[in-house]
Amino acid sequence: MSLIRVLIAEDMLPIREYLSMIIAHEPDMEVTGAVGTGSEAVELALATKPDVVLMDLEMETPRAGVEAIRILAERAPDLHCVVLTHFGDDETVFAAFEAGAVDYVLKNSSAAEIIEAVRAAARDMSPIRPQVARIIRAELRAMRSARTALISTLNTVYRLTPSELSLLRLLAEGKTQAEICALRHVEPSTVRTHVANILKKFGASSVREVVDRLRRLGIFEIFTVEK
Asked: Which of 167, 192, 163, 188 has the alpha carbon at shortest distance from 178?
């Protein structure tokens, strides 16, 4: 069985030397290189084609590892990146997996856990660890929630009359009700009635709430560009 070739990218020399030592002691593994920056990791990985890269996230920049993983995923898709980091926050974990990482191991993990993560990655059998599974479930719930909110909001849009839609565009652009009255040559009571109808349809208490919802859902331009 061929050796698992491992590249280590870690900016702290003691950790880099520790990782090199534990990997070199495994009979089925060899260290092809050990570097301290994400850019060096990309360069050496593309040149030597290791099976697995143990990639720190925060090196020369806070997201150097994430960017290195993204580049390698595009240019060397057969290579497997295992993130090794102090950080356990959801955003960091998700950013690493979104970039193309196949596994995620904290630096305080045991040597056995790190070695097993490397073996699993090399065999393309990396498990979905409990922490990662939790983040994926949370992300899927957020996606479903956002989809529901988007559909609901678009359905409300379709229920607006042309006059209400036009008025909402002007309000979204920052026009005051007085300015709209002057611009459209209508009475203040007419504008107030339209605003009340808009708020009722959106189930909102203010125009700002409606506009913020449109921005959050990424459909704000519908109301700021005349068709």
From this structure: 188
